[in-house]
Amino acid sequence: MAQTPAFDKPKVELHVHLDGAIRPETILYYGRKRGVALPASTAEELQKAICMDKPLSLPGFLAKFDIYMPTIAGSREAIKRIAYEFIEMKAKEGVVYVEVRYSPHLLANASVEPIPWNQAEGDLTPEEVVALVSQGLQEGERDFGVKARSILCCMRHQPTWSLEVVELCKKYQQQTVVAIDLAGDETIQGSSLFPGHVQAYEEAVKSGIHRTVHAGEVGSAEVVREAVDILKTERLGHGYHTLENEALYNRLRQEDMHFEVCPWSSYLTSAWKPDTEHAVVRLRKDQANYSLNTDDPLIFKSTLDTDYQMVKQNMGFTEEEFKRLNINAAKSSFLPEDEKRELLELLYKAYEMPPSTSAGQHP
Predict the structure, then answer these.
(1) What b/e string do you get for 3-19 counting C-beta neighbours within 10 Å, with b at 16 or more?
(2) What is the Cα–Cα distance from 325 to 108, expressed in whole angstroms?
(3) What is the pTM (predicted TM-score) of this model?
(4) Which residue of 73, 94, 135, 136 pairs with 84 in a disulfide if CB–CB is 3.0 to 4.6 A?
(5) Does 1 reside within a domain?
(6) Is residue 357 part of a domain?
């Protein structure tokens, strides 16, 4: 018998990775089609190889991508298809607006030597990846009614890619792209200060490109401070370790910083230690500005409801808080103001709340 959803009203999701949200069946299909070896021949077996059911380190989690990404990276057909199927997946989860992120370079297979299946399809550029993902998202939006926008990721270990990423953000602003992100292994010392990343974010500020940064997931509060003060981020991906610096946390709360919280992810990547209070409990108590997100639902074998159930059952979250955090997610989205107003009106109506209600305001 299916579990009753923790929150069965329209939802907004701001932090989910496209390459961490692929259907196992699609991976198997392209593995066979492109002659890429996989450790499984059925969706169930593949999930056992890829999915996590107990906590790993963040590098241990990141290694999971190496198992299946060669089936997708470098394939025009596969890249467009995963974007389209992603929207179908989110429609089933009751999401009405989603911002999905990815690295154009990783999907283009830029980080590895070309191998026969890549050469057979011809070299794929990061720009082609952005065009293909945008097409898939737009077709999904048309067919499934979920409004979708995309965020392009710079990678901490590849600062030479970042200036190209920001140029792609500028070029594809009218075709789903709304922001730039910095993702990857936060434990690389000082990586947010690498010149390539700093220059890309300076260009983003100058060009009116919205900014988010993975910071304070496993990294210290200092990584968060760098993201805010040097990269001028408008939102924080995860951000849990901000709470280790009370002055920084209080400042960011006063500045209405949005925290993209991924509860189930934080458990499985060991970003959160279960014998401590989760940062999201403090955010709720303080009526701070945050959202709930899946991060990488393929690897975590989850849906958005997994995260809502986790905080409802284990942390006492209520429907009223779910409404508040989704309204804050909509307000903190990277949509233009007129589209943001439309999204908020949709939520207020679905939640049976007057637009001026105090529950919709964050301090």
Answers:
(1) eebbbeebbbbbbbbbb
(2) 35
(3) 0.95
(4) 136
(5) no
(6) no
